[in-house]
């Protein structure tokens, strides 16, 4: 006689795939719990990075082949920096903003010391001492200090009405000293960008209008004095006003950049087919890389790039408005302002809308220091979005089996 035994339904949870478990270990929260802004930001940053590598490969291949004997020389080095920089982005996403804000004062002071060291021990390139050479690595402290300027600026201006006068004077003095040292390198563009960033964060933080007007006036006077004292800066301003007047001299860079952009036409010459990058356009893989992009992708590609930046700025603004604390809101606004502001200034230089400066195009121009700073800033912005959603980190479950309860 046969009997049929009914099986009870299995109440054990379905085992997670190795892929989801590995992803969970990398992320502070489950991917499904991420808000839409965080997902969109990580996608935009990934797209920005990939496009940047492709544009750099096209812009640098011919020069690398001629000067280094390896067409992929700059691309390979940028890939190494890209991996390290995405590690910093992951660290920015994994670490709470409270820890970053706690670290910011010390990191900013260390950055000031390193910037001061460039004035004494720095390597001079094209008349500017901006780099510290440590074996095979070149550090540019004025780039690496940018994320901590944002963090400490947010910590200062978010509590402006509640902190004492001594704290205000201390950190305003540190910021002012940092800007003056960057200006001394000389690096007018980075000094101006840092000052403008802090000014906008102070405006968003509710600092009084008289102080803001005084700071803007002082910044204008210092900038004008720097241009008057440095011959090369003065020549750049003069050549910006009429680059065709000395097309083979001081206006050469801008003239070649305008020729490259104009040669792109409506749809561009095609990827990798720029001719200006071959032997005409100088600094084509760093400061003037947008000219190569515009020549290869034309007016339509340039508009798409600007729309991409507009979308990134819109998402960053939504993140800032969704933050629950004023301090986090200022961090998000500072991150968005720096990335967009530096991108717009670089494009403005390449198109002749402002005097030639030495600002790289974030995540596109060649350079490991700028890439690391930019992706860490992106990580901080994504962290702001995650914390604004009120998520609580999920602890990882240990692999060790728990002892079975005694029956």
Could you explain the architecture of this structure?
This protein has one domain. Strands 1-2-3 form a three-stranded antiparallel sheet. Helix 6 (146-158) packs parallel to helix 8 (188-205), helix 6 (146-158) packs across helix 14 (326-350) and helix 13 (289-322) packs antiparallel against helix 14 (326-350). It is mainly alpha-helical and 407 residues long. The protein has helices spanning 18-26, 36-67, 73-94, 97-121, 141-144, 146-158, 165-184, 188-205, 209-229, 231-241, 252-263, 276-279, 289-322, 326-350, 368-388, and strands spanning 123-125, 128-134, 137-139.
Q: Keywords, please?
A:
single chain, 407 residues, mainly alpha, 3-stranded antiparallel beta sheet, 15 helices, 67% helix, globular
Which blocks of ≥5 consecutive residues have pLDDT under 50?
1-15, 394-404
Mean pLDDT: 87
Number of helical elements: 15
User: Which strand order does the major sheet show?
Assistant: 1-2-3
* Total number of domains: 1
Sheet-strand content, in percent, reads under 5%
Instruction: Quote the distance from N terminus to C terminus.
Output: 34 Å
Write the element-wise H/E pattern from the N-terminal end onward.
HHHHEEEHHHHHHHHHHH
Main β-sheet description: 3 strands, antiparallel
* Estimated helix fraction: 55-70%
Q: Shape, please? A: globular
Give a count of the beta strands, DSSP E runs of length 2 or more.
Answer: 3
Cα-atom radius of gyration: 25 Å
SS-based structural class? mainly alpha
Task: Describe the structure in brief.
The chain has 407 residues and is mainly alpha-helical. The chain has 15 helices and three strands. It has helices at 18-26, 36-67, 73-94, 97-121, 141-144, 146-158, 165-184, 188-205, 209-229, 231-241, 252-263, 276-279, 289-322, 326-350, 368-388; strands at residues 123-125, 128-134, 137-139.
């Amino acid at each position: 006689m046969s009997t049929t035994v009914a099986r009870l339904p299995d109440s054990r949870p379905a085992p997670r795939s190795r892929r989801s478990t590995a992803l969970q270990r990398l992320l502070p929260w489950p991917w499904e719990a991420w808000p839409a802004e965080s997902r969109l930001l990580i996608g935009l940053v990934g797209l920005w990075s990939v496009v940047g590598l492709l544009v750099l490969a096209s812009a640098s291949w011919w020069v690398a082949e001629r000067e280094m004997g390896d067409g992929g020389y700059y691309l390979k080095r940028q890939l190494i920096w890209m991996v390290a920089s995405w590690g910093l982005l992951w660290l920015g996403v994994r670490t709470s903003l409270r820890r970053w804000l706690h670290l910011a004062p010390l990191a900013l002071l260390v950055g000031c010391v390193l910037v001061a060291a460039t004035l004494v021990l720095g390597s001079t390139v094209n008349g500017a001492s901006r780099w510290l050479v440590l074996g095979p690595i070149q550090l540019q402290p004025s780039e690496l200090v940018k994320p901590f300027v944002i963090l400490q600026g947010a910590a200062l201006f978010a509590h402006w009405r509640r902190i004492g006068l001594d704290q205000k004077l201390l950190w305003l003095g540190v910021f002012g000293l940092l800007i003056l040292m960057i200006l001394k390198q000389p690096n007018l563009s980075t000094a101006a960008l840092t000052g403008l960033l802090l000014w906008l964060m102070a405006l968003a933080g509710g600092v009084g209008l008289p102080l803001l007007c005084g700071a803007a006036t002082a910044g204008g006077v210092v900038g004008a004095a720097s241009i008057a004292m440095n011959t090369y800066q003065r020549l750049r301003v003069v050549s910006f006003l009429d680059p065709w007047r000395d097309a083979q001299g001081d206006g050469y860079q801008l003239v070649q950049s305008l020729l490259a952009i104009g040669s792109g036409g409506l749809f561009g010459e095609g990827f990798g087919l720029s001719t200006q990058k071959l032997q005409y356009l100088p600094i084509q893989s760093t400061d003037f890389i947008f000219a190569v992009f515009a020549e290869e992708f034309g007016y339509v590609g340039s508009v798409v790039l600007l729309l991409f930046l507009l979308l990134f700025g819109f998402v960053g603004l939504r993140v800032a408005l969704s933050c629950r604390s004023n301090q986090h809101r200022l961090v998000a606004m500072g991150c968005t302002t720096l990335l967009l502001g530096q991108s717009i200034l670089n494009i403005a230089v390449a198109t002749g809308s402002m005097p030639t400066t030495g600002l790289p195009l974030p995540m596109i121009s060649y350079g490991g220091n700028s890439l690391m700073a930019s992706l860490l800033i992106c990580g901080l912005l994504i962290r702001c979005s995650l914390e604004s959603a009120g998520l609580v980190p999920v602890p990882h479950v240990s692999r060790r089996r728990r002892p079975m309860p005694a029956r």
